[in-house]
Amino acid sequence: MYRAFVCLTAEHTAWALPLAMLVCWLSCHTALRLLEQARAESGGRSAGWLVGAAFSAGAGIWSTHFIAMLGYDPGLGVSYDPAITLASLAVGVISALAALTLLRGARGTGGGVAAGLLLGLGIAVMHATGMQGVRVPGTFAWDPVLAAAAVATGCALACGSLLALSRAETGRGLILSATLLSVGIAALHVLAMAAVRVVPDPRADLAADSLPRAALAAGIAAVTLAVLACSALALVADRLRRMNRVLSEQRTALIAGEERMRALTDALPQMVWVAPDDGHAVYANRRFQAFFGAGSSSRTQRIDAHHPDERAPNAAAWRQAQEERRTFEAETRWRDPSGAYRWHRIVIVPVPHADGTVEWIGTAHDIDDIVRAREALRVSGERLALALDAGSDGLWDCDLATGEAWTSDRLWHLLGYAPGELPAHARTWRALIHPDDRERAVATLVAHLAGATPMFECEHRLRRKDGAWGWFLTRAKVVGRDAEGRATRFVGTHIDISVRKEAEGRIAHMAAHDALTDLPNRTLFRERLRRRLHEVVRDGGSCAILCLDLDRFKEVNDGLGHLAGDALLQAVARRLSAELPAGDTAARLGGDEFAVLVVSVAHPDEARARAQTLLRAVGRPVRIGDQSVEVGASIGIAVAPADGADEETLLRRADLALYKAKAEGRNTVRAFEPAMDAALAERRRLEADLRRALAGDELVLHYQPQVRPACGRLVGFEALVRWRHPSRGLVPPNAFIPLAEETGLILPLGEFVLREACREAARWTLPLKVAVNLSPRQFQQADLPERVLAILTETDLSPDRLEIEITETVIINDMARALSVLRRLKALGIRIAMDDFGTGYSSLATLQAFPFDKIKIDRSFVSQLGERPSAAEIVRAVLGLGRSLRIGVVAEGVETDGQRRFLADEGCEEMQGYLFGKPQPAERLAAMMDGERPATGAVTEGLRAAAS
Ligand SMILES: Nc1nc2c(ncn2[C@@H]2O[C@H](COP(=O)(O)O[C@H]3[C@@H](O)[C@H](n4cnc5c(=O)[nH]c(N)nc54)O[C@@H]3COP(=O)(O)O)[C@@H](O)[C@H]2O)c(=O)[nH]1
Q1: Burial of residue 41, with CB atoms counted within 10 A of its CB: 0-12 exposed, 13-18 middle, 19 or more buried
Q2: Which residue range or ranges hold the PAC domain (predicted)?
C-alpha cells in the first residue's frame, strides 16, 4: 500500500491523475449513455451506438492510462513505442466492445459480473500492452502481488460498475456506475504502476525525454474530449431526432384521435356541436349537419328551430346559463328538415379554457318517441287509475321478500280507509282478516306459493274501518320466483262480494226455510235429522221426530180466507218454536204439516210428553183479526233408533203414526207401532193392484136407479164404480176411491167411469139420464169441460142426459176456478148436481154462488128420519131451499117406506135408495127399463109402494 502511495504521490506529476480521472469519468459516462442508446435501439442502429460506446470507453480508458503515463516520472528518461502504444488503444477499444456487447444483451447479476470481469481484464491487458510500449533506460520489474491486486481491484470495480448500471433506473445510477468504473480504471493504473519498478540498465541508452509531456497530455485530453464531445453531440442529435419522431407520432396519434372522435360523434344518436361564446359552431357532427344543413352553424338558426311556444322561454334560460357559465338543459321541440316539430333533449355544457374563454359543447337527442310514449303512458296511466277507481276491484302487488305492497286506492275505499291510512303491507291483510277465515286463507296461500295451485282464490271476511266485517273474494297469482323457485312477487285483486254473500245467505236461508213461517223447511229438517241420526248411530243415544198436522186448518182457510190461514200457520210456528229448547228443530213440511226434531229423548214417554205440550200450545185459541180461532192438531211420533235409524224410515213411520192419530180423531198423539207398517204395506199392495186393475178390465160400473115415486117413473141411474178383484172379490169404492184420490189414480179412473157410463147410457132403450160422480182432483183439470165434451162426442150421448155430481169440496178448494169449470160444463148442456148436501161447511153459500140443477140430500139425514127430529128439520129445510131456489132435490139413501112417505109428504119428488133398487150391473138395466111397465125386483117394489 505504501508503494502505491509513493507511486501516486512521488512518481506521478500532480496534474496527471486528476486530468486522467476527469477524462476517464467523462468517457465512461459517455460510453454508458451510448450503451443505453444501443439498448434502446435495435439492429444496425444499436450496433452503431454500441461501437460508439466501445470506442468512447476504450479511448477513455486508453487516454486515462496514457495521460497518467505522461504524468509518470520514475526519475529516468521515458519514451514510447508508437506502434505498441496504438496497439494498446486497440486492445482498450476491443475489450470495451466485447464487454459492452455482453452487457447489452445480458440482464441480471450474472451478465453484469461477466461483463465487468471482461472489462476489468481488458483494462489490465490494455495497461500491460501500453507498458510494453514504454521505453526507459532499464527494465521493468513487476511486483506480482501488487500486479495481481491491480487486476483484481480493476475487475472488482468494473463488475460493481456494470452491476450498478444493470440495476440503475435513474440518472444517478448512471453517475454511480461511471464513477465506479473510473475509480476502477484509475485504481488499476495506480496499483499496476506501483507494482512496477525500473531496474536501471547501464548498458541501455538514456533516452532523452524529449516529449513535452504536459502539452502532449493536454493534447490527448483535448482530442479525447473532442471525441467525447462529438459522441455527446451525436447523442444529443439522436435525442432530438427521437423527440422529433415522438412529436410526429404524437401528431399522427392526435389526428387519429380527432378522426376517432369525429367518427364517434358521427356515430352518436345525438346531434353534437361545439361553439365558442359567440355561438358560431366550430364543430358539428354529421347528424347536426343533416338536421340544420351543412352550412348552418349560427345560434340564431338553432334558436329559430324551437317550437314557437318554447322559443322565448328557452332563449331566456339559455342566456341565463351562458351568463352563469353553467350547463343548460331543456326538453323542447325542434323543427326538423321536413318542417315537423320533434321533441329533443338539449344539453349544452361549458368547457372553460386557460385563457379565460369558454367553449360550449352541445348535444341534442331526439326523444320524440320517448316523449310521445311517456305521454301515452301517462294518459293510459290516468285511464288505468280512473278505471281502478271506477271499478269494483281493489288491486295489489306484493313483494314477498319484504311484505311491502302497492295497493290501488280503490282497495282502501272498499275497506273504508283513505289511501295511506294503513301501511300497504302483507301484515295489514293478516291483521284485518277474520279469525275464523285466517287458517283457511293461509293454507290456501301456502299451497299456491308452493306451486300446488295455479291461482290463489279465497273468499274471506276483512274488517272494515267501521268495524263491520265485509266479504271479499281474493284472486291472486305468483308472478315472480327466484332461482330456487321461491315466490318473490304476488299480485291480485280484492273484490267486495258482501252483497253477493248477503244475497247468497238470503237465498240459502230461503232454500232451507219456509217463506211464510221462517221455520226450517223439509230439506233443512231432513238434513238436521240425517246429521242427528248419524250421531245416534255413531255415539249412541236416542232422538225423536214428531209429525204434526192441524186438525181444522182447512176449515179456517176455506172459511176465513187464505190470509187468515197464513196467520194461523205463523201463530202455530211461533208457538212450536217457543216450546222447544235450544237444539230441537221445528219445521214446516208444507200446508198445515209441521215436524219437530227432539234431539235427545231418554225414553219414548219423553217424546210423548213433549207432543202433549205441543198439542196444548197449538190448541190455545189464536187471535186472527177480530176473530178467535181454535184448531187442534194430531201428532205422530217415531223414535230413533228403535223405530228406524235413517231419516226416510223414521219420517215414514212418524207419518204413519200421524195418519193413525188423525184417523182416531182430533188432538190425538200416536206413537209408531210396527202394525202400522203392515197397514202401509197393505195400502201399497192395494195401490199396485189398482194400477193393474186400471190397465185391465177389473173395474166395472154398477148403476143405481133414481126415481120419481109420485108418478112411478124411472128418471135415471147413478153410475157407481166397482172393482172386481181377482182375489178380494168385489171391492166397494170406499175401499179404493180415497186411495185413488191420494195417488192421483182417480184421474184415469174417473175418465174410465165417465166414458163407460156415457157409452152405457147411449145404449139404453129409454133416454134416461146418467149421473156420474166427479172427484175434486178431476175438477182441478183445467180442460175438464173439453174432456167431457170429447167423451160425449165419442160415445154419442146427448149432453142433457149426463148429470155430473160433485161435492162441496170441489168448489171450496178453489171457488173461482171451480165455478168457471161448472159454467162451461153447464153451457154444454150438462146438468150439475150437488152431492152429499148438508154435510159441508157452507152449503148455503155454495148454492148461492152457482145455480145447480139438483141437490142431493145426504143419506145420513135420510137414514135418521124418524129417529132424530133435527134430521127431519134439515130435510125439510133443504126441500124448502130447493123450492125457493127452484132447484130440484133428490133424497138419497131411502131404504124404508116411512122415509119415502115423509119425503113425499115434504114434497121431495126424486129419490134414490135401496128401497127402489141397489146399484146393479149394466146388463140388468134393460129389464128395469122394461119394468117401467111391468117390473119386478126392488125397483118394481119400490115404485109400486110409491104409487100406492
Ligand atoms: N168419484 C167417484 N166416486 C164414486 C164412484 N163410485 C162410487 N163413488 C163413491 O163411493 C162412495 C161409496 O159408493 P157406493 O159404495 O157405491 O155407495 C153408493 C150406494 O151404494 C150407496 N147407497 C145408495 N142407496 C143406499 C141406501 O139406501 N142405503 C145405503 N146404505 N147405501 C146406499 O150410496 C152411495 C152413493 O152415494 P152418492 O155418490 O153420494 O150418491 C160414494 O160416496 C160414491 O159417491 C165413482 O165412479 N167416482
Answers
A1: middle
A2: 328-379, 456-509
CA–CA dist 68, 59 (Å, integer): 14
C-alpha cell at 138: 532499464
Q: Does a cis peptide bond (omega within 30 degrees of 0) precede residue 641?
A: yes
Looking from the CA of residue 733, the nearest atom of ligand 1 is 10
Verify that 79 and 227 share a domain, yes or no.
yes
Nearest CA to ligand 1 atom 29: 893
Atom 19 of ligand 1, residue of closest alpha carbon:
919
Residue among 188, 70, 75, 182 nearest 128 (CA): 188
Closest ligand 1 atom to Cα of 915: 27
Q: What residue numbers bound the domain in which 309 lies?
A: 270-372
Judgement on whether residues 615 and 756 belong to the same structural domain of the protein: no
Does residue 915 sit in helix, strand or coil?
A: coil
Q: Are residues 47 and 91 in the same domain?
A: yes
Does one domain contain both 760 and 706?
A: yes
| Minimal-distance CA residue to ligand 1 atom 16 | 720
**Ligand 1 mutation pick, 703, 706, 718, 737, max ligand atoms within 8 A of CB:** 737
What is the phi/psi pair of residue 78, to 5°? Answer: -125, 135
Q: Is the dihedral of CA 478, 479, 485, 486 positive or negative?
A: negative
pLDDT (tens digit per residue) in 378-426: 888 777 777 766 666 888 999 999 999 999 888 899 999 999 999 999 9
Residues 404 and 525 in one domain: no
pTM: 0.45
Percent of the chain whose predicted confidence (pLDDT) is above 70: 92
The pocket around ligand 1, CB under 6 angstroms, is made up of 704, 718, 720-721, 732-734, 737, 753, 773, 775, 835-836, 859, 892-895, 912-914, 919
